[in-house]
Amino acid sequence: MGYSPSCQHLYALSVSPGKKKLGLFFIMLLLWVYMLYSCVGYCATMPSTLVADSINRARDTEFVAEDPVMSKLVSRPQSSWTDLESDYDEPIVRRAPRGFSKNEVELERAEWDQKVSPLSSFSNGSGSKKLPQAIIIGVKKGGTRALLEFLRVHPDIRAVGAEPHFFDRNYDNGLDWYRDLMPKTLEGQITMEKTPSYFVTREAPSRIYAMSRDTKVIVVVRDPVTRAISDYTQTLSKKPDIPTFESLTFKNRTTGLIDTSWSAIQIGIYAKHLDNWLQFFPMRQILFVSGERLITDPAGELGRVQDFLGLKRIITDKHFYFNQTKGFPCLKKAEGSSKPHCLGKTKGRTHPNIDPEVVQRLRDFYRPFNMKFYQMTGHNFGWD
Fold it and tell me: How confident is the model at residue 323 (pLDDT cuts 50, 70, 90)?
């Protein structure tokens, strides 16, 4: 069969080695572009839950105190009666050299806004670090650690494990330093931290207000007499040679004058400390959690906290079981784990026997302050 000259020319081109290589290269280029486009499309549409799960697995579920940086953060000189346990350690109530008014804070906020936006974040891959929108500010030995660990079960809450102590001890380090301590969060998740000493630190309200006036604060309160004994018990476990609870309670045992300079006593005057916070934050931005109900009805108290934070009630009764040995509720499954989780052996210590007369005198001392606190919060905690 014969071929026309034009067909013979096309055939010659098709079998030309140079042309064949060029054609193969062009086909491979098209395949590579297609694969790249497909990969980009898949990554962009990856479900957020998968991203969240990968972050959760990467997160260390143990306390950040094991980290060298955080260990350095919580280490500090101790006074004679200051508790040595970093999770609950709080200094004696301190006063600022001068008070800050709202006007002064507004001026300070304006200066800060020029340097760094409180709500801005550093994006880096999966999620970003943000300043906390909610803070557990107290009180020491009220149940703040339990509340934080319970809340971390919620998929929309991310919290730093160790206590940053930014607004009382590390304020000079600046907001960028503080934000860098926070875990990464995705869109719609809340960043939290807890430092119980904030509630009794006079400078803390103005400083938090300067960071963001919309910050929500949570206070876990407990019968002040029981709280004081628990505070003393914790210190006693670290310093067995300290004086007795009774001797520390009174300036003069004969007259029955209570020593309010002792931090274990002073922390329990809740009305006094709350008044300082109300100078900057309205009551609607403060939630009071009952330390007693956190033990008897953890799901109920967690429900109130989730409502306060504007989150769906995910943490319910199914997440808890009561540990008879420890005497308080534990998680059936902790964050990032499929195993039951109770707080450490340092929680739920057995209190020493205290002279009943001393306990009664303390109850009489706290009663007017408790009544004032009930009136301020609109809630009777039933401590009397």
Answer: confident
Distance (Å, whole) CA 86 – CA 220 = 18
In the chain, DSSP assigns E strands to 122-123, 128-129, 134-138, 157-159, 184-185, 190-194, 216-221, 250-252, 257-258, 286-290, 320-323, 328-331
- pLDDT tens-digit map of 151-176: 999 999 999 999 999 999 999 999 99
Cβ 266 vs Cβ 224: under 8 Å: no
Q: How far is CA 340 from the centre of its chain?
A: 21
Share of the chain above pLDDT 90, in %: 57
Tokens standing for 49? 């839950």
Half-sphere exposure of 339 (CA within 13 A, CB side): 3
> Which of 232-236, 323-327, 329-333, 344-348 comes out lowest in average pLDDT?
344-348
The residue count for the chain: 384
The Cα–Cα gap between 327 and 350 comes to 10
Structural tokens at position 185: 């969060």
What value, to the nearest 5°, has the Cα angle with vertex 151 and ends 238 and 372?
A: 70
What 8-state DSSP symbol labels residue 290? E
Please say whether the beta carbons of 283 and 275 come within 8 A. Answer: no
Cα–Cα distance for residue pair 126/124, rounded to 1 Å: 6
H or E element that contains 80: none
Q: How far apart are CA 227 and CA 114, in angstroms?
A: 42
Mean pLDDT (whole number) for 136-146: 96
Quote the strand ranges of 139-209, DSSP E: 157-159, 184-185, 190-194
| Rounded mean pLDDT, 268-275 | 98
Distance of CA 333 to CAs 98, 125, 321, 330, 345, Å?
47, 28, 10, 9, 18
Q: How far apart are CA 149 and CA 68, in angstroms?
A: 22
Question: CB–CB of 349/237 below 8 Å?
Answer: yes
Which amino acid does the sequence have at 15? V
Beta carbons within 10 angstroms of residue 158's beta carbon? 26
Task: Estimate the crossing angle of helix 204-211 against helix 102-115, to 10 degrees.
Answer: 40
Residue 56 has pLDDT above 70, yes or no: no
Contacts of 142 (CB under 8 A, 6+ apart): 196, 219, 220, 221, 222, 227, 291
What's 349's DSSP letter? P
Residue 293 identity (one-letter amino acid)? R
